[in-house]
Amino acid sequence: METVHVGLGDRAYDIHIGPGLLSQAGTLISKISSRKRMMIVTEENVAPLHLKTLQDGLAAAGIQSEALILPAGEGTKSWPYFEQTVEWLLAQKVERKDLVIALGGGVIGDLTGFAAATLRRGVGFVQIPTSLLAQVDSSVGGKTGINAPQGKNLIGAFHQPSLVLADIDVLETMTPRDFLSGYGEVVKYGMLGDATFFEWLEEWGPKLAAGDQGARIAAVKRSCEMKADIVMRDETEQGDRALLNLGHTFCHALEAATGYGDRLLHGEGVAIGCALAFELSSRLGLCSQEDPSRVRAHLKAMGMKTDLSDIEGALPDADALLDLMGQDKKVVDGQLRFILAREIGDAFVSADVPKDAVLKVLQDALDQC
Ligand code: GLY
């Protein structure tokens, strides 16, 4: 088992990464809590695969557990299910010192974390992420919340988990498409801050996608280390944490244009968005022309969506996509903030990107469709 420590003073916690962690959950959680009863929030696709293993793992350490099984899908990250979750936890008589366990992907982690943040003004929670995307991104760093009709993640709180258990075995139950979508966030870390990791992924990416467990552990660990490092520097996103949004301004416009659904998964949008961010950086003379080509070559070698032409169906025109970017919550004082790059592994936040340059990148990408 590998461990990454997130050093946030009295809110510090460990991320354990390795195989078989669901079965060891009771022992691992017992190291941070003496409670003998825990509440699990999960969803209907994850429960048949992993809930019993987790409950048996807790029982092996003398921890009795109750579970709330919610519907799967982004629609669950909403007021009605937030209310249901909070009321269920209250009915279970959750106390301040209890731990609530989130067993699932980003939707369950974000919703459960937000419920934990607000219940009794804050109870502890444990993240047990069951998707690659949740293991390398959403379960780490304390962003919790739900969606509003006006946009994604508009209601929420920073509330750090007390422990994260990233069980590498659960990745075997993911579909190849979902796995590669999560890989979009993995490769993002290399692009934004670690050229050596990007180079390693160029060699090892296809092997970890094919199931190499050692490579999966190494990739999740390096991703969590990089996220932990950024979160320790800037927990509430006043500065550097925005680097984690490389590719996301383009991605959020594309997700909005495709209805936040099966046409484009979040990590697929991140990958395409990173390719566009490197293209924009190159056209602004910030990075070499080879960098966007190398990014696109790796995404293509992984069999991932790389270009706008890889998205099925018609897309809005460049002006409409730019408008959708304007609704992104990373707009500050009406200025679009982009994460640009000087080279692979060296990204920075920029608030003064000429709109014409963005429009031209979008227009040229749409012309290839
Ligand atoms: N997913 C971006 C962040 O946690 O800041």
Proportion in β-strands: 15-25%
CATH overall fold name of the largest domain: Dehydroquinate synthase-like, alpha domain
Largest beta-sheet details: 7 strands, mixed
The helix content, as a percent range, equals 40-55%
What structural category do the secondary elements indicate? alpha/beta
Number of discrete domains? 2
Fold and architecture overview:
- By secondary structure, the protein is α/β, with parallel strands linked by helices.
- The protein has 2 domains: 2-173, Rossmann fold (3-Layer(aba) Sandwich), CATH 3.40.50.1970; 184-367, Dehydroquinate synthase-like, alpha domain, CATH 1.20.1090.10.
- Helix content is 46%, strand content 18%.
- The protein is built from 13 helices and 11 strands.
- The protein has helices at residues 25-30, 47-59, 79-91, 106-118, 132-138, 176-193, 195-210, 213-233, 248-257, 266-283, 290-301, 318-326, 355-367; strands spanning 2-6, 13-18, 37-43, 64-70, 99-104, 124-129, 143-148, 151-158, 163-167, 338-343, 346-350.
- The strands form 3 sheets. It has a 7-stranded mixed β-sheet, with helices on both faces. It has a two-stranded antiparallel ribbon with strand order 7-8.
- Helix 12 (318-326) packs across helix 13 (355-367).
- The model has no long low-confidence stretch (mean pLDDT 95).
- The structure holds glycine.
- The site of glycine (GLY) has 5 residues, from loops.
